[in-house]
Amino acid sequence: MSASSRRAIRRCWCAAATATAISTRIRPRSATSTRPRSRLIGPPSSARPRCCTTAPRVRSVPSRRLILAALGVLPAQAWAQAQTPKETLTPESFLRGIYTPYPNQDFKGQPFWQVDRFFAPDLARAIEADMREAKRRGEVPKLDGDPFVDSQDWDIAKLAISVKTDGPKAVGLVSFENQGKPTEITLDLVRTGMGWRITDIKAPSGTLSELYKK
Question: What is the span of the domain harbouring residue 178?
């Protein structure tokens, strides 16, 4: 065999060996995992499955788990919120600050578990104590819905607010349609050092004060 033939064979062998080595080092990338990402607190309360027909937009009361979890930081949050609103200067502006957002389609409800922001001290303490006890027992608190609309789900329209003031006290009448059903709610208010606060809510399902006497 001539020298040129041997060199040609050697080049072919080296090329084949290099290709084999490369093929053994390179592995195909694994397919992207299709496992769904975990969620810490679940989907937003407004999330709903898509369907072929248009359904009415109904918002829901925040998750009970979120309410109970919020209790760990409640006092600081409530105090910070209570110090800021100018809306507490009059009872009517206080109620409008609560109710005006509800007809908005993206509104998720007022954070009523921030009790000092909305309720007079006695009622606030009763609500907070019940929520803490429910958390300790792993149970549902007595306030199992949004007290401002007396419901766990809502689609608010035709909102109207009127207030009668008598010195340091006031009575607010709030009317609206919830998912087409007319609803009236009466709120007793008192002027406190932090502004106007709610002493009781009277709704079709009952009164808030009676709920905590049971």
Answer: 59-211
